[in-house]
Each structure stands twice: as C-alpha cells, then as structure tokens.
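Per reviewer request, we include the raw input and output of the structure prediction for the construct analysed in the revised manuscript.
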Amino acid sequence: MSETVNTFEAQQQGRPTGPLVRGYEVIIGFETHAQLSTASKIFSRASTAFGAEPNTQACAVDLALPGTLPVMNKGAVERAIKLGLALGSHIAPRSVFARKNYFYPDLPKGYQISQFEIPVVQGGAVSFFLGEEKKTVRLVRAHLEEDAGKSLHEDFIGQSGIDLNRAGTPLLEIVTEPDMRSTAEAVAYAKELHKIVTWIGICDGNMQEGSFRCDANVSVRKPGEKLGTRREIKNLNSFKFMQQAIDYEINSQIDELEEGRAIEQATVLFDPATGETRTMRTKEDAADYRYFPDPDLPPLVVAAEWIERVRATMPELPRATAERYVRDHGLSEYDAAQLTQSTALARYFDDAVAAGATPKLASNWITGEMARRLNASGASVSDSPVQAVALAGLIRHISSGAISNSAARQVFDALWNRELNPTLVGGSFEQMDAMFTAYFEAKGLTQMNDASALDKILDEVIAKNAKNVEEYRGGKEKALNGLVGQVMKASGGKANPAQVTELLKAKLG
C-alpha cells in the first residue's frame, strides 16, 4: 500500500488532455498488488496455498510472536526482477525494507514490512493498444511487501473473526504515474498488466482469490486547473467492477464540485450490489504511517550477475510475440494481439501452425469459433477439448479443398463434443488425416471438386436462372453470387464455392 502523492502533485503540467466527462478532465493512477507465485511466504516458510482452513497456515513469524525474525524469500526477489526486466525498469542494486505503521486487527505486528524510500524496481512503463491507438503508462515503482491477514465478518451472528493465513503472503505493489485519462484506458492498462504478470509466471492473476488486486486513484479537474483531490478505490477484483467503480466515482466527484462542495480525500470501497462507492476511511498520507527502516532486515542486494541469470530464464514477452506473428505469419496487429492474451493461447496457436495449419486460418478458428465456445462455457484454452494438432488437421483439409467451411464447422462440433477424437498415431500426420477423411466420407461431408461432376449442375442452374445470367452479363457482379448459391444448394453444399465461381465465370464469359 504505497502512496502516489508526489507523482500526482508533481506531474501532468502541459500533458495532453483526454476525453472530457461533463466538461471535466479525468486523472487516474493505479496501485496494483500482485501476489507472487511462491510456495512459501515472503519472510517465513509457511504455505501460501489458497483455501485452507482459517489460521492453519500462519506460523510463529506470521503471528509476530516474541523472538521471531523475518528471513527474505529469494523466489520473491527473483519475481520482482522478472517484472523489472519485462517492463524496462531499473532494478536497484541495493534496496531497503521499512516498517509501515498502522493499527488494524488483521495486522499482527502493528506494522507492515514494505519498501518505501528505495524500492527494488524503479521506473518502467506498460504499453498497450486502446483501439488502434497505442498508449503508454509510466511506472513510478514496484516494491516488495507482505500482505496482511483478513477480517471475516459474520453479520448473521454479529461477530467478526481474523484469519491470518494470508499474513506474510508476498506481494509486489506496482505503482503508476497518474497518466490515464479515461475509464477505458484504466481498464485496458489493468488488463495489460494482468497479462504481463501471468505471462512471465510471477502471479497466477486470479482476481476472485485476491491474487491480483487493483486500487484506482481518481480525481477530476477543469482543463488547465491544478490537480483535484483524489479518492482511492480499494481492492477492485474484476475488470467489470473496475469500470463501474471508476465511472461512478468520476460522476460522483463531478456532482460534488457542481454543487459547490469540496472533494474529501478518502479511501472508498465499491459495492457491486448498488453500483456505488462508499467511504471506508479518510485517506492517509505517507507521513501518517511513520515509515522507518526495519532493523530486522539488512539491505537487499541484487548483483548484476543475479539479474542476468534471471534474464536468461525470461520467456519471449507478449508484445515481442505479437510482433513475430505479424512479421513471420502475416497476421494483422489486431489478430496478433488477440492471440497473445495469454501464454496458453499463444502456445496453442504455435502448436497448430507447427502441425501444418495455415497461420491465418488457425488465427481465424482460434479467435472465432473456439473462442466463442470457450467464452460460453467459461473455460480457458487449456481446457479446450479440441487439441491444437486436431485443429491443424481440420485446417489442412480446409486448405486442400477436401471440405467446405460449412462442413468444417460440423466437424469442429464433433471434435468439441468428442464424437470425433483424432490423435497422432505413431506420430504420423498421414494417419491422422486418414481418420479425418474416413469421417468426412462416413458423414457425406467430402467436398465435390471434380469439374466434370459439377458441369451438369452448372448447366441446369444456368438454364433455370436466366435473369441472373442476363444481369451478370450486363455487368452486375453480385448476380453471380445468386448463381453460386443455387449451385451450392443443388450440390447439397458439397461443391467447392471457389471452384464453382471460377467455372461459372468461364461458362458465362
């Protein structure tokens, strides 16, 4: 939980304004808590597994029992280094931990161990596309800290309890400059950051379980005026609620100003049931936390050799992958961006292309038919019943003209429902293709590609559709579509539309 006070007050003079809301400029900054994917906590060996019975994963260090001392988790530091490398940040060769003092029932020590004056990750940026416009949000810092516990409120019995399982869980707090100028830009930034931390494997990104929590600092001002008073919306755990909460807060602040009232700096919570934000507490400034160096932890030293060892383990980043898809496969930037929403999706596409699928067709099927079905079932590509090698086999038959696109959709349905389950037999694509061919023939889906077999159908369609023929010969190109449709109908959908089109053009001169 860091503060963006200095950046909010010191930046933005002369920066271009974004779209105005009711005559006001919107200014948004983010603080995102990414729970790091370590098996143990940041200063103890206790487990970080989600879902355990309350207070079963809190050891003596987490409970702050007398005489216990924190020990730094090396894996947490390496994950911070990974983020710094991914975002082009400076990784501090020496950073320090501080005690952030505040009282809350779920904070066992009465302070939180965090980083204040010298964070491990400094600067950097997150770039993304909002429509066709490229946006860049600058980062102030990303620092390591421990999570607090969790208060459990049982309203029906009028009691509250404390679960300290989460206390000491490693967090990386990522703080932006106040560079965002609209709700759409803020949500797009959050989605891009979510993609990056999951892509490089430092966080599982599960927003429902609290692994990726966003706090939005929102203020409004008339163009050219000084920065307004900000309010912090805490713990936004879905992109849908993020959009609703920021929109509500913007309009609420504008209403207050229009009524002549001053905005009170505060921390607020979003209530999805009402669609409104409500004040949680007045907002503290950094001085209120009385930061001072933690005497139990020495400075964190990150040698250049350590950074290079971590760099060697880094995967290709999503933007670089998208650029490779555009360069090597001729995909559009939009298609490439769609395919790099997750490592699993990009890997699926790569596997399909490696198995012989035409890249453009593979992209169309993955982002079209398959994405539609996955979204409808709430599943991810990792759960797809259609393996990449099977989709590639289907696409190879589409490309060869063996089946039409409409027939291919029927086959995809059979693959999805596991009515058809082709696999590589002995590693042979030929044997897999034979399985597809047998299925096409059994279901009568094989496309009619023999020109002589089509000739009679073409002659009959031309004879029965004299008006379309006359219009086409008169220069109306669209009239040909009607003739193609009639041939497809007469062939029971088995004719190859591209071949039919060419044969009709030849016959009609």
